[in-house]
From TrEMBL:
GO CC field: plasma membrane
Keyword Transmembrane helix recorded: yes
Organism name: Paraburkholderia phymatum (strain DSM 17167 / CIP 108236 / LMG 21445 / STM815) (Burkholderia phymatum)
Domain ABC transmembrane type-1: 92-305
Transmembrane segments: 33-56, 95-117, 129-149, 178-203, 224-249, 284-308
Signal peptide: none
GO terms classed as biological process: transmembrane transport
Protein name, UniProt field: Binding-protein-dependent transport systems inner membrane component
Length: 318
């Protein structure tokens, strides 16, 4: 019988390294090209749907457009009109008050909830779900729920008076001096769970050896959190801050659902001002100018913040 010759594939591990690398390069190149092709739809979306609409809005803000866009160039006239509009100035005051209260309360409550759950409490999974569930609701649903709760005739005030507290007052939603804080309460209730989830993820990433060392040295637990843990949660806190700040700028649904900007203009916010002038008063030139001012404010605050964060990250890598 003749001798049998094996035709098995050669063992790649026995081949020289430069041969294996040469064969792997075409495959990597094909995958790289496929990845760039897959990015084309998102790139086009960013260029046309985002950057394109921003440039178009900026162009309209320099015109005297009313119901429809026009080519009647008027320079920065719309911006001058905007900052002479009392309603716009009031909305800026309200969003500043709301933003400070909302961000501070969300960070504080979210941090406390995360620390509480991080103690390995019983039914931890249930508690995480309960605290995070409000964030799954829309701002409209949240606004309607809290509108009923805060209604002087139907909600908490009525319940307290039925319980015998006849002089109890909780009518903030119809009080011009306090109505903006009712929106803070409603939106903090919704967003604090998200902050809790971000902080809890950061806490679970801290080495247990840190706590053992702190116990051995006799350092109080609160001091460990204040001096060590919270600084270590810098990335989580910055991420939460960015998300909350964007939510502040976008505030619209909860205001419309709860107060419609009232009483009067006591809870007017920039996003509602823009929507009213865009659709209600058919003044898209002024609405576009307000949108650009809001965008510039966001960029002015977030851009240095994100730049500093990325620079710190690059330093750590070095």
């Amino acid at each position: 019988m003749g001798t049998f010759k094996s035709h098995a594939l050669p063992d790649m591990t026995t081949q020289p390294t430069h041969v294996r690398n040469t064969r792997a390069r075409p495959l990597r190149k094909r995958w790289s090209i496929a990845a760039w092709i897959a990015l084309i739809p998102m790139t086009l979306t960013v260029l046309f749907a985002y950057l394109g609409t921003m440039l178009w809005t900026a162009r309209v803000s320099l015109s005297n457009s009313r119901t429809f866009p026009s080519n009647d160039f008027v320079g920065f006239t719309q911006y001058v009109r905007l900052f002479h509009n009392d309603r716009w100035l009031v909305s800026l005051q309200h969003i500043a008050i709301y933003g400070v209260c909302f961000i501070f309360a969300c960070l504080a409550i979210g941090m406390l909830l995360a620390i509480f759950i991080d103690q390995r409490v019983v039914a931890e999974g249930v508690l995480r779900t309960v605290f995070l569930y409000p964030y799954a609701m829309s701002f409209v649903a949240t606004g309607l729920v809290w509108q009923w709760i805060l209604n002087p005739e139907l909600g908490a005030q009525s319940l307290l008076r039925k319980m015998g507290f006849t002089h109890a007052r909780f009518d903030w939603i119809v009080d011009q001096d306090w109505v903006i804080y009712t929106i803070v309460i409603a939106t903090v209730w919704q967003a604090a769970g998200l902050v809790m989830a971000l902080m809890l993820a950061g806490l679970r990433g801290i080495d247990d050896e840190l706590w053992k060392a702190a116990r051995i040295d006799g350092i109080p637990r609160w001091r460990v959190y204040a001096s060590i843990v919270i600084p270590m949660l810098g990335p989580s806190i910055s991420t939460a801050f960015v998300l909350l700040f964007v939510a502040v700028v976008k505030l619209f649904d909860a205001v419309v659902a709860m107060t419609q900007g009232g009483p009067g203009t006591a809870s007017e916010v920039p996003a509602k001002f823009i929507m009213d002038y865009l659709f209600g008063r058919a003044n898209i030139g002024l609405a576009s100018a307000a949108s650009i001012v809001l965008l510039a404010t966001v960029l002015a605050i977030l851009a240095p913040f994100l730049y500093a964060r990325s620079r710190n990250a690059s330093r750590k890598e070095m």
